[in-house]
Amino acid sequence: MQRARLAMQKQEWMEKSRAICERLIAHPLFLHANGILVYMDMKNEVCTKQIIRAAWEQNKKVGIPKVQGKRMEFYEICSFNETAPGTFGVCEPTAGKQIFSEGMLMVMPGVAFDRKKNRIGYGAGYYDAYLKAHPDMPKAALAFEFQVLREVPAEEHDIRPDILITESTIY
Question: Which of 103, 110, 137, 155 could bond to 34 as cystine, CB 3.0-4.6 Å?
Answer without folding.
Answer: 103
